[in-house]
Specification:
It is a single chain. By secondary structure, the protein is mainly α. It has one domain. The chain contains four helices and two strands. Strands 1-2 form a two-stranded antiparallel sheet. Strand 1 and strand 2 form a beta hairpin. The longest helix has 84 residues. The two termini are 37 Å apart.
């Protein structure tokens, strides 16, 4: 950090200490104190703007570098991730097909036993001789793949899902409710419009 920047930081910290002291001693119990607070808030906002300007001296160049890096490299990163996903999907399709093929062969052998066409011991020998469907791949280059299975919950009929699992889109509700209030339209059931006070500097 340059000497000028260090001096600026010292000044800002002194102003911050002064602000904290003002905050600790300021009360609003009379009209006179109320009028004084407006000036104090203006002073705080001025200090805030100064701090943000000091911060931007450091962050703006960094933002530009990050923006350029993203513009250059993010498309390539996306392509690499897509390529990885495509290859994994092809591996998954092949391994799944091999697994289904073994299951189908086992079913044929079992059917022959049930029909009396094949002895159980012969069937067991044939099943044991069937090639295992690949679940793990390891190469000489020390890379590998493994197909694992996990249970996944999928919503197949949203209308049957109990209401306790539904999430209200509060942003959409607020926007629609205020729009209806503005245009004198019937309000959304379960929603009311209330006025809330806030203080803004003028």
């Amino acid at each position: 950090m340059q000497k000028t920047d260090e001096n600026d930081l010292v000044v800002v910290k002194e102003k911050m200490a002064g602000m904290q002291n003002m905050l600790d001693t300021t009360q609003v119990t009379t009209d006179e104190e109320l009028n004084g607070v407006a000036d104090k808030i203006k002073g705080v906002k001025t200090l805030l703007k100064l701090i943000e300007q000091k911060k931007e001296k450091f962050t703006e160049p960094a933002k530009l570098i990050i923006s350029e890096a993203r513009e250059t490299y993010d498309p390539m990163i996306k392509e690499c991730r897509n390529a990885e996903e495509v290859l994994k999907q092809r591996v998954k399709a092949y391994m799944t097909a091999q697994e289904q093929k073994r299951i189908a062969e086992e079913a044929k052998i079992t059917a022959k036993v049930e029909s009396g066409y094949m002895k159980p011991e012969t069937a067991m020998a044939k099943i044991e001789s069937l090639p295992e469907a690949p679940k793990t791949v390891r190469t000489d280059n020390n890379s590998g793949l493994r197909m694992s299975k996990r249970k996944v919950a999928k919503i197949i009929n949203p209308e049957l899902v109990p209401r306790e699992f539904w999430v209200i889109d509060e942003v959409r509700v607020r926007r629609e409710a205020l729009d209806r209030e503005k245009n004198g339209l019937p309000q959304i059931p379960g929603v009311i419009i209330e006025e809330e006070s806030s203080i803004a500097s003028i």
